[in-house]
């Protein structure tokens, strides 16, 4: 399956990619939820929610808070809308078409922002991180979650992109974008038949 189907799933193959993500990302989604450290009443945004599995769990944990998601794929918007139908009808969840480069919410809207396995597809990650910072309240929490591999020196780097950045480089990007207290959490995760390293870079908005 073409890698682009995981970044912007479309048509029957996109529907299949969504099913694979729902089944294969259980471990990394759990890491992401723990890193997010949700509190009842939080206003939360997930960027690139795919089939909506993690977003549904966020909606449960946020209680009387507000949960939003943006996603470029119309196929995944439909899939997630079905999964979250009751929450959407109750007004506690809102799904919008959108991307990290232009988040359709006002400044300081959210207490928490999460994204899982999307940064591989960001065209301008340094400026996109500034856009994430824009929609977070001061002191808000951001969890950037992705798969990683070890380079020839044993250092962890993002998986799935040409010339993958190291955790140190990603940390510098986050700090330049207005985040502080960046901490990396890592865990061995399963994706279908493979075992790899999951990373959650967690930071606070200045």
User: Overall 3D geometry?
Assistant: globular
> Gap between N and C termini, in Å?
40 Å
CATH-derived architecture? 3-Layer(aba) Sandwich
CATH superfamily: Vaccinia Virus protein VP39
Assembly context of the chains: single chain
Can you give a write-up of this model?
A hairpin with a 5-residue loop joins strand 5 (136-150) and strand 6 (156-158). The chain contains eight helices and eight strands; from the N terminus they run αααβαβααββαββαββ. With 206 residues, it is an alpha/beta fold. The protein has one domain: 3-Layer(aba) Sandwich (Rossmann fold). Strands 1, 2, 3, 4, 5, 6, 7 and 8 form an eight-stranded mixed β-sheet that branches. Residues 1-7 have low confidence and may be disordered. It has helices at 4-7, 11-24, 26-36, 53-61, 74-83, 85-90, 125-135, 167-176, and strands at residues 43-47, 66-71, 93-97, 110-116, 136-150, 156-158, 179-191, 194-205.
């Amino acid at each position: 399956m073409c890698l682009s189907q995981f970044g912007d799933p479309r048509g029957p193959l996109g529907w299949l990619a969504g099913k694979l993500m729902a089944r294969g990302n259980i471990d990394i989604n759990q890491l992401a939820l723990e890193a997010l450290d949700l509190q009842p009443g939080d206003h939360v945004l997930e960027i690139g929610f795919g089939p909506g599995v993690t977003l549904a769990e966020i909606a449960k944990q946020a209680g009387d808070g507000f949960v939003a998601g943006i996603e470029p794929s119309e196929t995944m918007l439909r899939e997630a809308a079905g999964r979250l139908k009751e929450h959407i009808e109750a007004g506690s969840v809102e799904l919008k078409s959108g991307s990290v480069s232009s988040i359709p919410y006002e400044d300081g809207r959210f207490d928490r922002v999460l994204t899982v396995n999307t940064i591989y597809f960001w065209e301008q990650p340094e400026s996109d991180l500034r856009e994430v910072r824009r929609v977070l309240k001061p002191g808000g929490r951001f969890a950037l979650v992705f798969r990683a591999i070890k380079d020839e020196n044993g250092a962890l780097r993002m998986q799935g992109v040409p010339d993958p950045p190291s955790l140190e480089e990603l940390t510098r990007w986050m700090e330049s974008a207005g985040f502080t207290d960046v901490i990396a959490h890592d865990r061995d995760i399963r994706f279908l038949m493979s075992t790899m390293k999951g990373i959650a870079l967690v930071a606070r908005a200045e």
